[in-house]
Amino acid sequence: MTLPQTPSLELTGKRALVTGASQGIGLACACALAQAGAEVTLVARSEEVLNNAVSALQAAGFKADGLALDVNDHVALKQALANQPFDILVNNAGTNRPKPLGDVSEDDYAAVMDLNVRACYFLTQTIVEQMPNGSSVINISSQMGHVGAANRSLYCASKSAVEGMTRAMAVELGPRGIRVNSVCPTFIETPMTRPYFEEPGFLESVIAKIPLGRLGQVEDIMGPIVFLASPASAMMTGSAMMVDGGWTAQ
Q1: What is the C-alpha to C-alpha distance for residues 147 and 15, in angstroms, rounded to an integer?
Q2: What is the model's pTM?
Q3: What residue ranges in the chain does DSSP mark as E strands?
Q4: How far apart are CA 168 and CA 175, in angstroms?
Q5: pLDDT tens profile 214-241
Q6: Longest dimension (CA), the chain
Q7: What is d(CA 27, CA 46) in angstroms, rounded to the nearest whole number?
């Protein structure tokens, strides 16, 4: 009898691109891929913070470099990435401006939709041109792409759009052997989200909706990222991986 073998989570020899990668979830994604053996290019706007992240990865013995660019600048990004084939793309760069519906301005709308949707869409368009068979695109979405919440109509709209493009891209790119999936976290404790938890009662209200009874940590994202980037998820595409502590199960 020949026993089946578990597909590898090893990423040695693969090249990965991670946006919004200088801190928080993006840095955790870059670390996860590097620790699995991939050569990782980190993209972020702040050159100083980005260089610190790249230096830390290199000092730990991992293969990493940085690209200090705004992912909203599609022309500059396309020029910088010309003739650079990647096996893995993690669209992580994103933002949020939580406000009541009546207070959302056109500037808020443009800021959130441009970064969360437009930048993700056009960077993927650029990168998949040179992606080989067996590659993986991972969109960092949110549980808010699947549920609603007060003061988050704009963010929910942007992440619902990410979920829709993930499914459509999966269908279109499937014949080329390129998989497209999303990771949908609950509230993760990061430098971007930390100020929200200082609002009176907000932390308690969030914890009350998470059956596991705690906030997510960046480490909770790392396993799913490696799984979706690796041959271990070879038959998964167009899927949304919920990393929400059970929020959306209710």
Answers
A1: 34
A2: 0.96
A3: 15-19, 39-44, 64-68, 88-91, 136-140, 179-185, 240-243
A4: 13
A5: 999 999 999 999 999 999 999 999 999 9
A6: 66
A7: 13
Any idea which residue has 């994202």 for tokens? 221
By DSSP bridging, strand 88-91 and strand 64-68 are unpaired
For residue 139, give the 3-state DSSP assignment.
Answer: strand
User: Is 109 an annotated catalytic residue?
Assistant: no
Q: Are 184 and 242 contacting, i.e. CB atoms less than 8 angstroms apart?
A: yes
Condensed to tens digits (0 to 9), the pLDDT of residues 120-159 reads 999 999 999 999 999 999 999 999 999 999 999 999 999 9
Q: Round to whole Å and give the CA distance between 118 and 227.
A: 26
Of 209, 196, 101, nearest to 155 by C-alpha is 101
Q: Which residues pair with 68 in a beta bridge?
A: 44
Q: Is 46 helix (H, G, I), strand (E, B) or coil?
A: coil
Beta-carbon contacts of residue 174 (< 8 Å; ≥ 6 apart):
237, 238
Identify the three-state secondary structure at position 36.
coil
Nearest to 23 by CA among 44, 40, 41, 39: 44
Among residues 109, 121, 155, 196, the one annotated as catalytic is 155
Token pair of 127, please? 């990168």
Degrees to nearest 5, angle at CA 159 with 215 and 168: 130
Tell me the CA distances in angstroms from 159 to 50, 98, 144, 147, one per residue in order. 25, 13, 6, 10
